[in-house]
């Protein structure tokens, strides 16, 4: 279950979004959804705090849930939306509130971003350890079940990164390690580094993968299958485009405010529209929801997709996809219109 909240919603009315999120976590737990995915940077740490509150308020035993979080992204100061710092780091470097944190002052925005990664975020030993300590404090737990590298940091040697992750596992603060969107050669480099040094290896890849974005099939999915790395993709419903007809997208509060949709142009091309239409056709033919068709397609190809929910209704709808399968002919029907796309989500 994804626990991603928009920075702007929480800044506008934190309690108004915290309480529904807590109730959704309890509903998920009661339905047997006990694997919760978050990240240090989601809503500048508020997502992790909400998970911690849920465990305490609902008296959920720690070993009854699997908490997955991430490190790498920089955190914002003074309540600023973390996405502004993480996604617009070069501009943030020009701010008086961040320049002194990112190393020596420089006129080069590229160098400034490199300093940001080196001193305030990224995958150095210092950054990883600091991120884990802060995440544990926000979560109110003694350990993280799965710590994921949010992205690949090419400013740090793979030896430094993997040794730091191994040491966190050894000392018990982290139980397993994984990674998120990156190039297949980068994941392979990290895995080979761990194997060569007899360190803890990565067990999962959280990549961008769905019916409208299948570029991961070229290298990443194949490598993970070969290496025994579990695939737990994000955005399996393409930010809702595969869950409702195009005419209805943007009518709900969540879809209209979805900042991911603005970052990644999804569902707009002629090819995407045709795939969505075919999902509708199969949904009508089988008397399923559209999301069940899209999830039935992806479930056969991954370990488990990470799905975000905005209501109990959406949660039950996704759970209804369990055990549903498509025929090979139906899968070919859905896949046929797909055209290659530019890589999304690796930055």
Outline the structure in words:
The chain is an alpha/beta fold and 347 residues long. It has 2 domains: 7-76 and 123-335, Alpha-Beta Barrel (TIM Barrel); 77-120, no CATH class. The chain is 45% helix and 8% strand. It is built from 16 helices and 6 strands. It has a 6-stranded parallel sheet with strand order 1-2-3-4-5-6, covered by helices on one side. The radius of gyration is 20 Å and the shape is globular. Residues 98-107 have low confidence and may be disordered.
Helix content: 40-55%
User: Regions with pLDDT < 50 over 5+ consecutive residues?
Assistant: 98-107
Strand order of the largest sheet: 1-2-3-4-5-6
Class from helix and strand fractions: alpha/beta
Total tally of structural domains: 2
CATH class of the largest domain: Alpha Beta
Question: How many distinct helices?
Answer: 16
Biggest beta sheet summary? 6 strands, parallel
The topology string of helices and strands comes to HHEHEHHHHEHEHEHEHHHHHH
CATH topology of the largest domain: TIM Barrel
Q: Care to count the β-strands?
A: 6
Assembly type of the shown chains? single chain
What CATH architecture of the largest domain do you see?
Answer: Alpha-Beta Barrel
